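Notebook p. 47: complex prediction with PBG.
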Amino acid sequence: MQPELSPAAPRDPQAGVGPRTGSLSLPVRPRRLRRTLALRRMVREHTVRVDQLIYPLFVVPGKDIDDPIDAMPGVRHLSVDRLEAEVSEVRRLGIKAVLLFGLPRVKDPFGSDATKPDGAVPEAIRAIKSWAPDLVVMTDVCLCAYTDHGHCGVVEDGVILNDPSVDLLTRMAVAHAGAGADVVAPSDMMDGRIGAIRSSLDKHGLSHVAIMSYAAKYASSYYGPFRDAAHSAPQFGDRRAYQMDPANGREAIREVLLDVAEGADIVMVKPAMPYLDILQMVRNNVHLPVAAYQVSGEYSQIIAAADRGWLDRTTVMEESLLAIRRAGADLIITYFAKDYARMSHHGS
Ligand code: PBG
Ligand code: ZN
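Predicted complex, structure tokens below:
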């Protein structure tokens, strides 16, 4: 038997056979560059660096809260006073950015708590900036966790109203930016919100704050675990009147180009793995950094299969992140960020 991995394999008993090409008719042997680990590493086309990862954090109002989220093992609900340990771990691991999601004190039809400067997210931003001024703080800007009906905007007679929703989202973004967020990330998919948020930020002296747009966000069932975590499942209907139809590809480019024109600094595709074709198309059509969101369902399905011994958690994690990078993502939002950072510190 041929010793497959031996770097010292003396000579190939099959020499001279195999596929031939070119004028010399020599055998073509791509496996030459896969023979040893060192060679394989040298010819790697893509890598995943820890500083390309963004780690989501779930911030809740109140004190002394540190609750595991059932459907997302390893991810927790944290009150601001319990955030410091998490933030210092994130920094110690070399992660450069967090993406904050908040829960309100009370839900109402307009998601009023979302726009308050003393809500859980603004408080968390100020606290994080006091502990770790260099950590990039991004915030999700959307109303669905704040409205009692669970939709991403204002609802009237069962219809999501676009422009009144944009108004609220704009105020929410200003509240986050005013508290010190470096990047606001609108995830609602209302029309025109990037332009509205950009001009309002500028008007409020916040022209230095960047916008990462959830530009091509699909109406995906992979958000299931997150909606449990954010208590944000719609109480009636679904999100298909604003999030994109999974059947559509070209439309993603239209959405992305609109957001670029309206002033987005980073555009995002979400989810990631089931939409790698979209990611690649977006990469080829814009010059901005492109982010991909490896969403809760993508994360939890890997963990669940690994818990049953059906998949290897670490190698599948690495392969999934590599696939997302290979498709064209500069940045990846992932619940695996801490795990990946730990793994890469230990060397792989
Ligand atoms: C809020 C929002 C969602 C996610 C990010 N921001 C849920 C949704 O649109 O229903 C999903 C994140 C995840 O699944 O990890 N609009
Ligand atoms: Zn939403």
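Notes: The pocket of PBG (ligand 1) is lined by residues 140, 142, 144, 152, 187, 223, 226-227, 232, 239, 295-296 (CB under 6 Å). The first helix runs from residue 37 to 42.
Next step: compare against the earlier run before touching the bench.
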